[in-house]
Amino acid sequence: MSMTPTADCLTLTPMGVERTDEQLMLAYAGGDTVAFEILYRRHRGTLYRFLLRSLRQRADADELFQETWSRAIASRQRYRAEAKFTTWLLHIAHNLVIDRFRRTRPQASSEEAEAVFRELDAPEDERPERVLSEFEQRRRLQLALEELPEEQRVTFLLRMENGLGLEEISEVTGAGRETVKSRLRYALARVRARFES
Amino acid sequence: MIGDRSERDLESLLDADRGEFGALYDRLSRAEPPRRLDRAVIAEATRAAHGSRAQGSQRWMLGIGSVAGVVLAAGIAWQVGREFESRDSVPDAAPVDRSAPQVVPVQPISPAPLMEEAPADSSGRDDREAKDPALTGSRIRSEQAPKPARSAPRAAAAPPSPPPAAAATTIEAEAFPQAPTEQMPTMEQRALEMEADVERSRKSLAEPQADAIGESRERPSAAGNSAASAPIESAPRSITAPSPTTSARLRRNMQLEPQAWLAEIDQLRNGGRTQEAIENLRLFRRMHPQWPISEALRRMAQ
Predict the structure, then answer these.
(1) What is the model's pLDDT at position A109?
(2) What are phi and psi of B29, to 5 degrees?
(3) 8 Å CB contact of B42 and A44
(4) Which residue of A has its CA nearest to B49?
(5) What are the CA-CA distances from residue B76 to residues A12, B45, B65, B84, B283 (Å)?
(6) Chain B residues within 8 A of A178 when measuring between CB atoms
């Protein structure tokens, strides 16, 4: 993506330290559009992939990507540095994703997850050999992600794509810490099941 | 067993490398948002930032606009005030004493036949108006009266008034139109009382001329000749209502020192404003009976 030439220089503070997301966001709230460009460049990819893999439809991802940034722009005056920018941005995106899920289809039942665990319960020697090509591995992971129940998929993506910890995922999704752990466990079991099928 | 395994998987997932699937996940396609989305988002952010800046400047402009409006209004008020002041201070050939009651038009109290003589004096009055623009008000009023049936023989003998002065009086008359009689406040009554003495003196001056007037009705040409030969004999015009300006000037002169008043009377007489000089002298003698006056003035008074 093309950026303003001065954007790179302005990434640094006067002390030579790279400006944090929070500093950039506050600068943008004060009218510094270059700060926003830097911020956008930092997070555009991870946000887009989170949305794309959560929604599985490029058109939906495009729409919610733009909507997420629009809401961030509109809320810039209300942003406080106490909140981590990534968490704040993903919280906006997550709410949009959940809204979209609710409009499209019902949640996956917990029985489906239990079935996955029953499969995993089989002895290791009874499971198919996992000697798969690189391409096949990536394809299976892709499929596994797509087949995950929405809440588990979103939680799994927040960890894998955005690198959030339990507390941060809890903050973004609004779920309890134990709920987040449970969703991650179920998601891992399903992905493993796809690889071992 | 399942629980142990899932717990281990979770721990490895929460590690920095995100466990066994972390590296594989990173090798998935790195989808990027399309450029059109980049442009749209950046444009929206820029628009929003500039919009809020514009709103700030609009607030600033609102303040400036308000101040400018107040300054403009004050300037207009000041200019209008100056205009009024300059109107008030227009140089007047006969400045009116503003502390005194305003100009009062006095209704003629002489009999109707004498009124007919007023037009005969019009040329002489024009002469006076040319010299004294303040007299224009009385001319305007007299022009509203019915036109005289006959012209005054003296009109031909009267010297022509200088055009610039006449023009000046016209302009002045337009700029300061006299108030109509019916609009005069009760102050008029007081002014009338003040003028009573003057009127009485005028009447007494006019009575000796009554016979001459009767003659002039019968023989207009003869009357004209006599008027031309003796300005003092144009007494009938004094019987007409004195102009408000003259009355005001008379009141002003009453406040002068006796010496200065006499000088003013001399000046009126020398300026051809004999009637006004006589009125002044009569009043002077009533107010200062012991004050010596010159023989010429005494003759004029008689």
Answers:
(1) 52
(2) -60, 135
(3) no
(4) A31
(5) 56, 46, 16, 12, 48
(6) none
CA distance A153 to chain B (A): 13
What residue type is assigned to position B245 of the chain? Answer: T
* Chain A hits for B40, Cβ within 8 Å: 66
DSSP-derived 3-state class of residue B109 = coil
Which pair of structure tokens corresponds to residue A153? 């998929």
Chain B residues inside the 8 Å CB shell of A137: 24
- For residue A87, give the nearest of A148, A10, A129, A25 by alpha carbon: A25
Question: Phi and psi (nearest 5°) for A12?
Answer: -90, 150
pLDDT in tens, A44-61: 999 999 999 998 889 999
**Are B117 and B236 spatial neighbours (Cβ–Cβ below 8 Å)?**
yes
One-letter amino acid at B263 equals A
Tens-place pLDDT, residues B98-136: 554 555 555 655 554 444 444 444 444 444 444 444 444
Which pLDDT band, with edges at 50, 70 and 90, does A24 fall under? very high
- Residues of A with Cβ-Cβ distance to B34 under 8 angstroms: 62
ipTM over 0.85: no
Mark yes or no for CB contact B30/A188 under 8 Å.
no
Residues B133 and B93 sit within 8 Å (Cβ to Cβ): yes
Optimal mutation site among B7, B11, B12, B21, interface A, most CBs of chain A within 10 A: B21
Contact A7/B at CB under 8 A: no
| C-alpha to C-alpha distance for B43 and A48, rounded to whole angstroms | 18
Specify which residues A18 forms β-bridges with. Answer: A12
By the 8 A CB rule, do B121 and B138 touch? no
| A121·B2 Cβ contact <8 A | yes
What's residue B202's pLDDT?
57
Is A34's pLDDT higher than 90?
yes
- Considering only CB atoms, which chain B residues are within 8 Å of A166? 14
Of B31, B34, B49, the CB nearest to A49: B31
C-alpha dihedral over B181, B185, B186, B190, to 10 degrees?
-70
Q: In this predicted model, what pLDDT tens digit does every residue of B178-198 receive, in sequence order?
A: 444 444 445 555 555 555 655
CA distance B20 to B26: 11
CB neighbour list of residue B191: distance below 8 Å, 6 or more residues apart: B101, B102, B104, B247
Cα–Cα dist B73/B79, whole Å:
10
